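Input/output pair, single chain:
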Amino acid sequence: MLPTVFEGALRQFRTGLYELSAARYPGLRARHYRLLSFVPDGGIRLSRVAEASGLTKQALAQALAPLQAGGYLEVVPDPADRRARIVRRTDRGHEVVDAVLTLQRRFDERWADQVGPERWAAAREVLAELFLR
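Output:
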């Protein structure tokens, strides 16, 4: 039952992401939004994104290509080590992350309305304790 519950929540959220893509960010898929979420404001080395995402460097390069082509990310040499590369969000990439955070807030509000704010807050707290340590 638990996998079905998580899959249902993920399916709802993914549908919201696809609606966001259709309305504002054509071509972006759930994996692109996920990759953008790994990139902090100051940028991050490609090797760290590969590590965090679980992708090989080759798979990461393929996944990042549409984000670079769409102007969401840029990959530049690391000033501390020219052999390393840093990935940074562009202004458009920051816009996407802000839009996803807004989408997340809407889902939070929707689910809180469905089960009550106290129950939803408790559920979020338990899930965070289990999975965000």
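The mean pLDDT is 93. Residues 91-115 form the longest helix (25 residues).
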